[in-house]
TrEMBL record:
It comes from the Bacteria. Gene3D superfamilies: Periplasmic binding protein-like II (3.40.190.10), Winged helix-like DNA-binding domain superfamily/Winged helix DNA-binding domain (1.10.10.10). The keyword Transferase does not apply. This is Transcriptional regulator.
């Protein structure tokens, strides 16, 4: 049985004043029409809601129960309608956002928090990971959006670049080249390298090492790690050298020396990644905000 909001509002108008004439004025309908609505509601429910006499109107026990329920039903209906409108406007919902840790110094995660503050009804959940893994989770539907670095092209993924930066070399302070301000990439090809595992992303790996392999020699990676923070501490300890996006060197240990890389090299690019077929309003609103 469906209790129509209009019928419930008519019932409450009478229940509040216990007078059909005054209730009809409040509802701006003719009294006979209001009486018919109440009779129809009683017929649908199979109960009497009012005791009517020529001099008074009173609620029956069933009417008193419906009075309380009707207020709750109408309030919930209005709440649901408002939620539908907010979702359609992108003002409510949930976003699962992945990010690479190397993006943190550049501020996109702060933009996520700003969006949270401005849209408190949107739940935003953050997940850290490597670019390749974030893209896999994005396509599976585990993530709605990801901040990725030098992503491999993938069908079904929309990329929106937002930052490019140069690569630099990072060597320990005791390194033979530490006293210089710049270096040619191939000069480091014979040094032990510390770097991410290949599974972190093929394009990212290729771009990072491109300045070094330009001379035809592929460096030997002697130690892998899962974050730039760890890699730079390995460099500081003298375990090896590496090539990194310049922002990754922000906050590096004092024992790490940054050297500019001579020559022209492909920059490192950060991008927002989302599913190409995801057109939800909440995602559009987020992308407009960031």
């Amino acid at each position: 049985m469906d209790l129509e909001p209009r019928a419930l509002r008519s019932f409450l108008a009478v229940a509040d004043v216990l007078h059909f004439g005054r209730a009809a004025e409040t509802m701006r309908v003719a009294q006979p029409a209001l009486s018919q609505q109440i009779r129809r509601l009683e017929r649908d429910l199979g109960v009497e809601l009012f005791v009517r006499t020529s001099r008074s109107v009173a609620l029956t026990p069933a009417g008193r129960v419906l009075r309380d329920r009707a207020r709750a039903l109408l309030a919930q209906g209005e709440k649901d309608a408002e939620e539908v409108v907010r979702v359609a406007r992108g003002e409510q919902g949930r976003l699962d956002v992945g990010f690479v840790s190397s993006a943190l110094p550049l501020g996109p995660v702060r933009l996520v928090q700003q969006f949270r503050d401005e849209h408190p009804l949107v739940q935003v959940h953050l997940t850290e990971g490597w670019t390749a893994h974030l893209l896999e989770r994005l396509l599976r539907g585990d993530l709605d959006l990801a901040i990725v670095r030098d992503p491999d092209p993938m069908d079904g993924v929309r990329l929106t670049p937002f930052h490019s930066e140069r690569y630099v070399a990072a060597v320990p302070s005791g390194h033979r080249l530490a006293g210089r301000s710049s270096v040619r990439g191939p000069e480091l090809a014979g040094d032990p390298f510390v770097f991410f595992p290949p599974g972190a992303g093929a394009l990212a790996t290729a771009r990072n090492l491109a300045p070094v392999v330009a001379g035809g020699v592929v460096p030997e990676v002697v130690q892998e790690a899962s974050s730039w923070t760890t890699l730079l501490h390995l460099v500081a300890a003298g375990i090896g050298v590496t090539v990194a996006p310049v922002s990754a060197l922000l906050g590096a240990p004092d024992e790490v020396v940054t050297l500019e890389l001579e020559g022209d090299h492909e920059p490192s690019t950060l991008a927002w990644a989302s599913r190409a077929d995801d057109t939800r309003p909440v995602l559009r609103r987020f992308m407009d905000a960031v």
